[in-house]
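User: structure tokens for this one?
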Amino acid sequence: MTLKATASLPDARAFLADAPVLAKRRVAEAGSQSDSKQLRVAIVHYWLVSMRGGEKVVEELCRMFPQADIFTLVCNRDRISDFLKTRNIRTSFLQKIPGAQRHYTKMLPLMPFALEQFDLQDYDLVLSSESGPAKGIITRADALHICYCHSPMRYIWDQFHVYRHGLPWVGRALMSITAPMLRAWDVTTASRVDMFVANSDYVASRIRRFYDRESVVIHPPVATDDFVVGKGKGEFYLYAGQLTAYKRPDIAVRACTEAGRKLVVIGEGEQLPYLKSIAGPTVEFLGHQPFNVLRDHLSRCRALLFPGIEDFGILPVEVMASGRPVLAFDAGGARETVSSPQVGFRFAQQTTEALLETMAAFEEVEDDIDPQAIRAHSLKFSSAVFRDSLAGLIEQQLSHHGERSADVFRRRPG
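Assistant:
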């Protein structure tokens, strides 16, 4: 990929005598006499302890900028992809704390200090991947900082009481004390970002609400080529993902138990014992499964049941890439992905009754649904679309950033 800047800056270069501003020329010239590989690029991700949606974005950023260094608070190399293991990953002082790779979330009050210890003065382009704290890093004043925001931190904003309720009394007390300071830091550090990119319209609205900043929406990459359209009519309903309260897997379990429909549940989490206690004989729990098993079930299900609220929700797109429809709660990113009756149905209330009504409506037209049309819809969210969209945006921002930098130099006293 080549990023081209349109600015020609001979006047600005006349002022580039001192070493600290030599990198500014690299930004202004990116693509005019060189390509993006000449840029010094840093990718900042909150933590690398698993391979979920945020980590898939980091992989795509690394493919776009193979020379980039990765900065992260904590890394568990045993649980990241082989591709990421080949990258230059730099961790914070939190990595040295015993048990950090398992108990990193308990170190939230220390994370602002850890992030600000990263020295990014050498980097021209900083791409922060935000869901936990990541955007709060300190960049060089003339560097370009673009934040790809999966979500403002839920545990200090709109999901604060949900997360706090699940803690022991000591944790609740500590969270009550530290959350106001973390919110203030989170809002203040939004000003360190030159441009926000949101992964959905839903997240863009939350960025606007919490940070008072506008953003550009670019949906996250989905590896649609990894999935194939299943053959024949689906055999069962499917729920897949973490078994946590806010994802509401109980709605799917209760609905299929009540309707006597076969449901396969793939995933693990603290709600598993409770879900087993309310499940009938038609519900089967498989626990955590490797990707090939999940892919097989995505291609053979009647429909994915998606009763939670996700900022975007990659799994619905993956099941659509397998030619299967989605029955989703009408909120969050599902409004953007499950966008027509040809690919699925959305139910207005987050209740078992609403899902049962939607299942009945779906089953009336199930035989008329076209798997190839569903698959075609999913390609709008492919990795290639993500890379093209983000590359165009970065190219534009580098060009504008170079022009602004040149303007500053022209105004400098001679």
